[in-house]
Amino acid sequence: MSPHLLSVDSLSRDQVDHLLRVASRMEPIAQRRKITRVLEGAVLGNLFFEASTRTRVSFNAAFCRLGGSVCDTTGFTFSSMAKGESLYDTSRVMSGYVDAIVMRHPEQGSVAEFAAATHVPVINGGDGPGEHPSQALLDLYTIDKEFARLGKSLVGAHLLLTGDLKYGRTVHSLIKLLSLYDPMRITLVSPPGLEMPSHLIDLVTSRGHRVEQRESLANDFSDLDVIYTTRIQKERFTDEMSESFNGISQDFSVNRAFLESRCNATTIVMHPLPRDSRPGANDLDVDLNGDPRLAIFRQTDNGIPMRMAIFATLLKVEELIEKDLREVRWFVPKKIGVDDGQPG
Amino acid sequence: MSPHLLSVDSLSRDQVDHLLRVASRMEPIAQRRKITRVLEGAVLGNLFFEASTRTRVSFNAAFCRLGGSVCDTTGFTFSSMAKGESLYDTSRVMSGYVDAIVMRHPEQGSVAEFAAATHVPVINGGDGPGEHPSQALLDLYTIDKEFARLGKSLVGAHLLLTGDLKYGRTVHSLIKLLSLYDPMRITLVSPPGLEMPSHLIDLVTSRGHRVEQRESLANDFSDLDVIYTTRIQKERFTDEMSESFNGISQDFSVNRAFLESRCNATTIVMHPLPRDSRPGANDLDVDLNGDPRLAIFRQTDNGIPMRMAIFATLLKVEELIEKDLREVRWFVPKKIGVDDGQPG
Amino acid sequence: MSPHLLSVDSLSRDQVDHLLRVASRMEPIAQRRKITRVLEGAVLGNLFFEASTRTRVSFNAAFCRLGGSVCDTTGFTFSSMAKGESLYDTSRVMSGYVDAIVMRHPEQGSVAEFAAATHVPVINGGDGPGEHPSQALLDLYTIDKEFARLGKSLVGAHLLLTGDLKYGRTVHSLIKLLSLYDPMRITLVSPPGLEMPSHLIDLVTSRGHRVEQRESLANDFSDLDVIYTTRIQKERFTDEMSESFNGISQDFSVNRAFLESRCNATTIVMHPLPRDSRPGANDLDVDLNGDPRLAIFRQTDNGIPMRMAIFATLLKVEELIEKDLREVRWFVPKKIGVDDGQPG
Fold first, then answer.
1. pLDDT tens digits, residue range B56-78?
2. What phi, psi does A113 have (nearest 5°)?
3. What is the ipTM of this complex?
């Protein structure tokens, strides 16, 4: 594997499989039955030039659970960069202080530029419209884990990706990762103007998958295994798109009625979160809260073992961890990692 | 005990006694003679939607002293909540990342709403005009510890609560905790319009305590054991109150002259801090700095063992700690936890 | 040594030598070949009233590498100080929470005022135009280490300090530290109006060093051992200075051409960073990146062992560390602490 994790594009099928396996071995720690101190003495620089509480806390907690320490930095700019310091200087300086860097930045490509000047592993925690590879990996890990629980296989699975498929970087990265696996059937449903870019469809098709595009959810999905829904960001719409979208908005609500009438008892529902719970938001409906098919919180829970796997792999401790496990001594909530989204 | 600590209302006398006992056993750690690693592998999410450096650092340090790691978040809003995420979603997601949550929020009730959706223990670090239970517990612990030092007992003790008794949440919570104990005498002195709410006086009286209300400090307090003074927040005054208050403001200054002329040699002085040291602030006077009766810094020092006790109890490690103590190896300042407020 | 590190003025030659020796013994940890947990259980309060990501992360990482935990606070003011709390109260309260404090503050003298009220060691992380002693110590440590590598000695060495010598606090502190050592030759080159204050020149001269002031870099520096260049902050110029400076600005560029034409093969180039890499910034040129004489990143790398040495000395664990070393188990980048500034 590359010293960094900047994009899913650099990952081979073997490397993805390795990360899935390591993540799986991290479960006892993520579920707080075991602890390890394998990264004792290591320091993570968690650099968030753009706010993202959830992603920052997830990386921070994952590194701590491996025994390391974390130094968080948040804010739109570094104080030294305001004085004209180059990304090169900042990066090289930071690599003398910390042992790994997670960086989130609003500009596409900036994390790769940063990584080029550093001597320590850099993980892209999201670079604007660019990449967010740890999200795609935890999404794939969730599908893999849910399928194992349900006795299903990726071969021939039917997945529906819906919402904003044009700008949503999570669905772009996920579909690339999925395409590395055995042939499956992928249905895409998005409002007009927010379709999946054709080069991604071509890529997936060229790897033997069957891709189908539809304009509405008013279809039969009775053989569906996964719905992956994303928030439609209306602020990105042109006037024409807004008009057209308002007329058909109901078609994009994934809710209990849709699941009951058109899907089946084991169709799982995923979402990269956050979901917009405000009235009229047209996002994944809260009426599915408590339904075991709603996998969104198992999905975020899975961020911990997957991010642990990424750190463990980049820092080359994945083999050491199992020799270093100890029992947790403090109170362990029962539902972590295994609950079904019901209010506690 | 409830899985959370949201309010002092949920605490029984036995539970408060337990916390006082555990806090006392944390003293060797808080005074930096011993260390423990009992919470190794645990992560605290320290979520401050409202700034409070002192409270945040105190919880953070208490968790670290038990061996855990802390991930701080500060700022008026979560980035994801700005995108319409519900408190329910935020809470459920965070509980997959961390093992305990301290939350401070400007809106009353928001911490309880947050706790309802989570699977990990939540501690209310202050919810606006609502509750701040760890402050009340450390206040009670301070009285208990000072009384033990002075050979005094809570039975029949005379306490004076003064300042803003209407809006000051710390005095509300403290008086509730005190009311669980043996009958004592509580005198209330506040400017007109800032009196203690009558339902709290009724509660305390119904539990056998003697409560007396006065409008001025110009009285004999020679049998007084504790003065608990709070900052009067003039920004909350109506015009009428301002006029009336300005005429009598001197009566509410707790200073060396008051202590010398009206109290006794063992009357301790407490304050939830911060105190306003600006000229004309009419807050607890700095002329008491260095007087052994000034207990305000012993009081903040006590925040560490009490917050350790809260974490230890919620995470069920209070029995384990004593088996896990080791000697501190680094430099230990002599005065921590036992000094009298004198400049160092 | 004083319980605090507030200024280089308080340091004797013996104390500086001790810090250099301890820093040297920290190298295996800073270079991530060894780890120690000697500060286990200790908590650092890292209080940055003024933003400085680099300095904050460096202190944070140094404390973590010794096994301690860190609680960061950033922002222009403490929430409690906005309510009128004195620096005395804030300081005394914090000393009950943490075991050491690093404080950066925009006002000269504020860190010393803070230290006077606390019971724990305080390190000045920069107080506006005042002091930044850890920077001067890491600069001296860098010269010492580079000289050892090159087989040179401080006795009779020739150092050039250039740039803003009037306002640059780093050169003031550095020249004071250098003056404690054996006689050397120090050349000062600055634009008119930005000369080194005469009381500092007098101090250094009175200790037996040879100091020479020049107005331009257009001289022969073929026997030069060290160039220490600083950023010229044009925002501090009067109109007259701006005019005069614009005419001669080229003379103050330290770049590859200058090094090739006027210096020698072992002249090392230092800078306190950040350097302004924007076009026309007239700061240290990026065309030296990759040249082994460019020591600026080795210099920032050296911040870790020196800050570890400061913590270890103030917390009196410098003798314990060597008994407590363990091997690093995670991936160690090859170039940390030894590279030459080349892009990675």
1. 999 999 999 999 999 999 876 66
2. -60, -45
3. 0.93
The tens digit of pLDDT for each residue in B232-272 reads: 776 666 666 666 666 555 567 899 999 999 999 999 999 99
CA angle C132, C134, C140 (to 5 degrees): 110
The whole model's pTM is what? 0.95
By C-alpha distance, the chain B residue nearest C48 is: B53
- Answer left, alpha or beta for residue A75, where phi above 0 means left and psi between -120 and 50 means alpha: left
Q: Which of B337, B273, B269 is nearest to B308 (CA)?
A: B337
Percent of chain A with pLDDT over 70: 89
Say which CATH class A134-298 falls into: alpha beta
Lowest-pLDDT range of B50-54, B313-317, C299-303:
B50-54
Three-state SS at C162: strand
CB within 8 Å: B86 and A330: no
CATH fit for domain A8-131+301-327, picks 3.20.20.30, 3.40.50.410, 3.40.50.2000, 3.40.50.1370: 3.40.50.1370
Partner residue facing B320 (CB), from A67, A329, A343: A329
The token duo for B331 is: 């430099």
Angstrom distance (rounded) from CA C162 to CA C252: 8
Q: Which fold has domain C8-132+302-327?
A: Rossmann fold (3.40.50)
Query: Which pair of tokens denotes residue C322?
Result: 């060597």
- Within 8 A by CB and 6+ apart from B151, the residues are none
Half-sphere exposure (Cβ direction) of C184: Cα atoms closer than 13 Å: 25
Domain boundaries of chain B, sorted by first residue: 8-131+302-327, 134-298
Q: Which residues of A touch B40 (CB under 8 A)?
A: 35, 37, 329
CB atoms within 10 A of CB B278: 12
Least CB–CB distance from C97: residue in B35, B58, B289: B58
Pick the CATH number of B8-131+302-327 from 3.40.50.10330, 3.40.50.1370, 3.40.50.1100, 3.40.50.300: 3.40.50.1370
CA distance C267 to C148: 14
Beta strands in A9-140 (DSSP E): 34-35, 43-48, 69-74, 100-105, 122-127
Q: What angle do CA B74, B78, B82 make, to 5 degrees?
A: 145
Residue of C nearest to A318 (CA): C330
| DSSP structure class, residue A112 | H
* CB within 8 Å: C43 and B58: no
